[in-house]
C-alpha cells in the first residue's frame, strides 16, 4: 500500500528539510511518495529541490496559496492514501504504520490524525520533549499501536491528516474559498462525516510540531464567517466539548447508559461521552439544522425546538439529560424541566451549565447604569432568563429535582475586581464572594420521583435506636439526605451543627465512613452552607473533607 505525502511549503526551507529527512528516516522505502506544494520559491529553495531525486514539486508561480496547491498535489498523487503534512513537522518511529493500521481497522474510517506537542482541536498531549532529538526518543517508546487509544473525533486538524483515496474521490478536493488555510480542515472533516465516514485520532502516534504559523486574527474571523455562511452554524460555538459537564457523570465506565443532550450542536460532548463510556447510547435534540446534520453522523438526533416538539422518548429511559448553556435561552425552563422528568430514570440526573447574573462584572455595569447585551457571555443577547445561585436551587427544587453537586467557573480577576467584590460584601453585610466570582454554575441534579416512603421508614427503624451522641445523630441525618428522605428538615439540623464548628470533624468523619455517595453529600451540605451565608464554614468543611 502506497501513501502520497503532500507537504505544504512556503520558503521555510530549514523546516522543510527536517520534515523530509524525518520521513526518509522513519518511513519504509517504497511505501510512500513525497509531493511538495507551495508558492513561488526563492533561489535557495528551488536549487535544493532540484538536487532531490525522490520528491515531486508543485510551485505555483502565481502564488495561489494553500488549498489550491494542495489540490494540485492531490490531483497528481498516485497513492492509495493521501497524507496532508505541514512542513514544520518532524515525523517519528512507526508513525505511518500506526496511522495506516488505524485507518484500515474499520471500513467506515475515512481519515485519521496524530497527536502532537503543539496544535489545536484536542490533539495536543503533554509530551516529554523539547526538541527534535528528544521527540524521537519520546516517540520510540510512545508510538505503540493500541486500539484502546483510538478516539473518534468530531473534526481533525490538517497538520497531519491521513485520508483514504476513496474518500477523496467521493468527497472531492479542499474547498478553495478558505485559502490561505483557516477552516479548510474543519470543512473537510464535516464533508467526510456527511459522506458516511468516521474521523479517528490516533492517541498512540506522536509527531513533533514546531507550529510556526503566524496568528492572523483577521483571517480567522474572515474564514470563520465564510464557514458559517456555508454550513449555517458557528464553528467555535457548535463544536466544543464540555468536559466540565462530562466530569459530573459518575456511572461505572462499563455500564450501559442512555444520555440525551438538549441543544447538542454538532455533538462534540456526546461523542466524547461515548468515547469514555463505551456502552453509552447517545441522543440529541438540536434546533440548528446544519449542526444537527453533523451530529446525526454518529448519534440519534432530533431536529427541533425542545419547547415546541413532543418528547417521544420512552418513560424512565435516560440516565442523564444535559442542558449545556440552554436553560437560559428558553421561554419557560421550568416547564421543560418538568416535562422531561418522565423520560428520566428514577435515579437519573440532569446536568446543566447556567450563567450567573450575580457575577461582579454584571453588577458593576448595573450600578453604573448599564445592562448591555453582547454577542456572547452572561448578557448574551439571546438569553431570555437570568439566574443567581439561589434561583437555580429554587428552580430545580420547584420542578422536582435535588441538587447533588454545584461547581462554578471563574474568570481572571484584577486588583480592582477584588476591591469591588470586597465593597459589595461590605454593602450587604454578608460574605458572598464566591457568588460574585462565579461566572457560570455547573449543576448536577437528581430526579427525586423514585424515592419511596418505605425508605424513610426503614431508615428510621434502623437509626432511631442508635445512641443520641452527635455522631449517631449526624449519621442518621446524613443518611436521610443521601436517600432523599425529609431532606430539607434533615439539612436544617445539619446546618445547625455546622454553625457550631466543634462538630466539623464529626461531620467529615461520618461522610467518609458511613455515606456511600460522599461527593454528593459534601456538595449538598456545602451548597446549603452558602445559602445561609456560612462561607467560612463551607470552606473549612471542604478543606477537611479533601484532607481526610
Automatic annotation (TrEMBL):
MF-aspect GO terms: 2-polyprenyl-6-hydroxyphenol methylase activity; 3-demethylubiquinol 3-O-methyltransferase activity; glycosyltransferase activity
Q: Which UniProt keywords apply?
A: Glycosyltransferase, Methyltransferase, Transferase, Ubiquinone
Q: Which GO terms describe its biological process?
A: methylation
* Glycosyltransferase 2-like domain ranges (all copies): 4-117
Which pathway does the protein contribute to?
Answer: Cell wall biogenesis; cell wall polysaccharide biosynthesis
Classification via Pfam families: Glycos_transf_2, Methyltransf_23
| Record organism | Oxobacter pfennigii
Q: Which InterPro entries match?
A: Glyco_trans_2-like, Nucleotide-diphossugar_trans, SAM-dependent_MTases_sf
Q: What is its EC number?
A: 2.1.1.222, 2.1.1.64
SUPFAM superfamilies found in the cross-reference section: Nucleotide-diphospho-sugar transferases (SSF53448), S-adenosyl-L-methionine-dependent methyltransferases (SSF53335)
From the broadest rank down, the organism's phylogenetic lineage runs: Bacteria, Bacillati, Bacillota, Clostridia, Eubacteriales
Family classification? Belongs to the glycosyltransferase 2 family.
**What name does this protein carry?**
Ubiquinone biosynthesis O-methyltransferase
Amino acid at each position: 500500500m502506497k501513501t502520497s505525502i503532500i507537504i505544504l511549503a512556503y520558503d521555510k526551507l530549514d523546516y522543510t528539510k527536517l520534515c523530509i529527512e524525518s520521513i526518509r528516516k522513519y518511513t519504509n522505502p517504497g511505501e510512500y511518495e513525497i509531493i511538495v506544494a507551495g508558492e513561488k520559491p526563492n533561489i535557495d529553495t528551488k536549487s535544493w529541490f532540484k538536487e532531490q531525486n525522490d520528491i515531486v514539486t508543485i510551485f505555483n508561480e502565481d502564488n495561489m496559496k494553500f488549498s489550491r496547491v494542495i489540490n494540485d498535489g492531490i490531483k497528481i498523487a498516485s497513492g492509495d492514501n493521501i497524507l496532508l503534512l505541514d512542513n514544520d513537522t518532524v515525523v517519528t518511529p512507526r508513525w505511518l504504520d500506526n496511522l495506516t493500521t488505524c485507518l484500515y481497522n474499520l471500513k467506515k474510517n475515512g481519515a485519521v490524525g496524530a497527536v502532537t506537542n503543539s496544535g489545536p482541536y484536542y490533539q495536543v498531549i503533554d509530551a516529554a520533549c523539547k526538541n527534535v532529538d528528544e521527540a524521537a526518543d519520546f516517540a520510540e517508546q510512545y508510538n505503540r499501536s493500541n486500539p484502546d487509544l483510538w478516539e473518534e473525533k468530531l473534526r481533525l486538524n490538517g497538520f497531519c491528516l491521513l485520508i483514504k483515496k476513496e474518500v477523496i474521490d467521493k468527497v472531492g478536493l479542499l474547498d478553495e474559498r478558505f485559502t490561505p488555510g483557516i477552516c479548510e480542515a474543519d470543512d473537510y472533516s464535516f464533508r467526510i462525516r456527511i459522506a458516511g465516514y468516521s474521523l479517528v485520532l490516533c492517541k498512540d502516534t506522536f509527531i513533533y510540531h514546531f507550529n510556526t504559523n503566524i496568528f492572523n486574527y483577521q483571517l480567522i474571523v474572515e474564514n470563520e464567517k465564510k464557514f458559517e455562511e456555508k454550513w449555517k452554524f458557528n464553528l467555535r460555538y457548535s463544536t466544543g466539548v464540555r468536559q466540565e459537564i462530562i466530569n459530573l457523570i459518575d456511572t461505572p465506565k462499563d455500564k450501559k447508559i442512555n444520555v440525551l443532550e438538549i441543544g447538542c450542536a454538532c455533538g462534540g460532548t456526546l461523542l466524547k461521552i461515548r468515547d469514555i463510556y463505551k456502552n453509552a447510547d447517545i441522543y440529541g435534540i438540536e434546533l440548528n439544522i446544519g449542526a444537527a446534520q453533523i451530529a446525526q453522523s454518529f448519534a440519534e438526533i432530533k431536529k427541533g425546538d425542545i419547547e415546541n416538539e413532543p418528547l417521544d422518548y420512552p418513560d424512565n429511559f435516560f440516565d442523564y439529560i444535559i442542558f449545556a448553556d440552554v436553560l437560559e435561552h428558553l421561554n419557560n425552563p421550568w416547564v421543560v424541566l418538568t416535562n422531561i422528568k418522565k423520560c428520566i430514570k428514577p435515579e437519573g440526573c440532569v446536568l446543566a451549565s447556567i450563567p450567573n447574573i450575580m457575577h461582579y462584572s454584571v453588577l458593576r455595569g448595573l450600578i453604573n447604569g448599564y445592562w448591555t447585551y453582547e454577542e456572547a457571555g452572561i448578557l448574551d443577547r439571546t438569553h431570555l432568563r437570568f439566574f443567581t445561585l439561589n434561583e437555580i436551587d429554587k428552580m430545580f427544587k420547584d420542578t422536582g429535582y435535588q441538587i447533588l453537586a454545584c461547581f462554578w467557573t471563574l474568570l481572571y480577576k484584577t486588583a480592582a475586581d477584588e476591591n469591588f467584590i470586597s465593597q459589595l460584601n461590605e454593602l450587604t453585610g454578608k460574605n458572598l464572594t464566591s457568588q460574585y466570582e462565579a461566572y457560570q454554575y455547573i449543576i448536577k441534579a437528581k430526579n427525586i420521583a423514585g424515592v419511596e416512603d418505605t425508605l424513610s421508614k426503614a431508615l428510621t427503624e434502623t437509626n432511631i435506636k442508635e445512641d443520641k451522641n452527635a455522631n449517631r445523630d449526624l449519621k442518621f441525618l446524613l443518611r436521610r439526605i443521601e436517600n432523599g428522605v425529609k431532606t430539607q428538615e434533615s439539612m436544617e439540623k445539619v446546618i445547625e451543627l455546622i454553625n457550631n464548628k466543634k462538630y466539623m470533624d464529626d461531620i467529615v468523619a461520618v461522610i467518609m465512613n458511613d455515606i456511600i455517595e460522599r461527593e454528593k453529600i459534601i456538595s449538598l451540605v456545602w451548597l446549603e452552607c452558602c445559602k445561609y451565608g456560612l462561607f467560612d464554614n463551607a470552606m473549612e468543611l471542604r478543606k477537611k473533607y479533601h484532607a481526610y
